[in-house]
Design goal:
The structure is a single chain. The chain is of the alpha+beta class. The chain has one domain: Gcn5-related N-acetyltransferase (GNAT) (Aminopeptidase), CATH 3.40.630. The protein is built from four helices and six strands, in the order E-E-H-H-E-E-E-H-E-H. It has a six-stranded mixed sheet. Strand 4 (about 80-90) and strand 5 form a beta hairpin. The longest helix is centred in the first third of the chain and has 15 residues, at about 30-45. It starts with a strand and ends with a helix.
């Protein structure tokens, strides 16, 4: 049985800096969606929610009111997407200030252990903080040790 954790982090505390040697930019659907979709499906090949997407799945998410390409960060190396972090801002939580979400983070399996996930997640956290948010959350499978280690290093609990 799948067990999903919901982790939180304050954006009022310092966001850890991370050095990297790749370019991070925001998602441009016209330029990036096909390459992003291919990478997403490679990364999440066995994931029940994020894997096996068709272009229509991506288009449906981009049509949601929460979609903002300025909060969707992609990392490049040699003009190839090697990782990404897609954010959401929830304005609809009852009796709560808006909350950020790290919606999905992915790193090309051929590029692991280079700090890509930490770099794009840090960029996303800074973006959400600059949007005036005080809290950020994410969902993660409880048995995803690599992701949990990354999120712990970023201050999530």
């Amino acid at each position: 049985m799948r067990h999903i954790l919901k982790l939180h982090r304050s954006l009022t505390t310092q966001i850890p800096a991370t050095a990297h040697n790749f370019k991070i930019t925001t998602f441009n659907p016209t330029l990036h969606k096909e390459e992003w979709l291919e990478l997403n499906n490679k990364i999440f090949v066995n994931h029940p929610d994020q894997g096996n997407w068709a272009l229509a799945d991506l288009d449906n998410r981009m049509a949601e009111p929460w979609f903002d390409p300025e909060g969707f960060f992609i990392a490049f190396e040699n003009k190839k997407i090697i990782g990404f972090c897609w954010t959401k801002i929830h304005h609809d939580f009852v009796n709560q200030d808006p909350t950020g979400e790290l919606y999905v983070i992915g790193v090309d399996p051929d590029s692991h252990a280079q700090g890509i996930g930490k770099a794009v997640a840090t960029t996303a956290l800074i973006y959400l903080k600059q949007k005036g948010l005080n809290q950020v959350m994410l969902y993660v499978d409880a048995d995803n040790d690599k992701a949990l280690s990354l999120y712990e290093s970023l201050g999530f609990n």
